[in-house]
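Subject: Sanity check before I submit

Could someone independently write out the structure tokens for this chain? I want to compare against mine line by line before I put it in a report. The sequence has 305 residues.
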Amino acid sequence: MRTIYCIPIFFLLFSVAFADVIVTQRPYDLSVKATTLVILGSGFSPLSTDNTVALSVGALTPTCSVTSATATQLTCTLSVPNGANTGTLTATVTVNGNGVSVPTQVANLIAVPTIPAVSGQDLSKHPAAITVTGTNFGTNPDPLLPPSITMSSGTCSVTSITNTQIVCAVAYTSTGLTTGALNIVITANGYTLPSRLYAVVLNNDPAITPMSFDLSTNAKKIIVHGNNFVTATPLAINTRTVTLSQNGVNVPCAATFTSTLITCILSTNMTSGVALLATVTNNGNTTLPTIVATVKDAPVLCVDT
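---
Independent answer below. Compare away.
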């Protein structure tokens, strides 16, 4: 006889271990009008819909809809309520309804950046850099949301930023910037300002007229000749300068400018036998060093006794 034994099968209970969800503290500046928030950490799901982000700043609760995700980074569309206070923005991330992070700072909310209205300041076709002044540019920009300036002609790479000033290096074709209105769009702390007129580009690069006349070592004044040393509407921040030098050593000069002349009052003796070079900067453009005099020994008065 064949005997069949039946063994009851019991449900096996098991548990699934979820990885710890950790949010990295990020104290970088973020505008209250920013539309993107980046959260770094670990234990996130690569599937965007599996991650839920709860935010708070003071008593307000901004919203953050996750648009892309990896195990270590979430990017979400941010909406901060009108009238939100500046200050610490805190995030709590929940993954798959189970793993929950502790509340952690993910940004430092600051006021919206602003720049004043500008009308028609002059700019050279070949500026080395431009400087934009304003407010609330921030002092601790997020490396993942870097500040930028887009120009209607040429390109601009931000080289420094303070809360009230952005400086960027300008690049352009061999013909320089396009003459006429130069508009800029600034993005700072995750917020992009509307396009704004920055300057009017003129074909007015400063130029020095080369000179080779003799100048005494103890001369007290020299006049530099040329064009476009002063324009009708200079840049609001215009580092108009003239630099005199001999063999790379600066010669102090207290200067006054007209459109075609720079008068330099000299306060130290110069070196005999060495050319005196001048370099002029105006409206963002700097000339090449140009010879403006040849320094000779001071004349000696001889008295026959």
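---
OP: Matches mine. For the report I'm noting this point. The chain has no helices and 27 strands.
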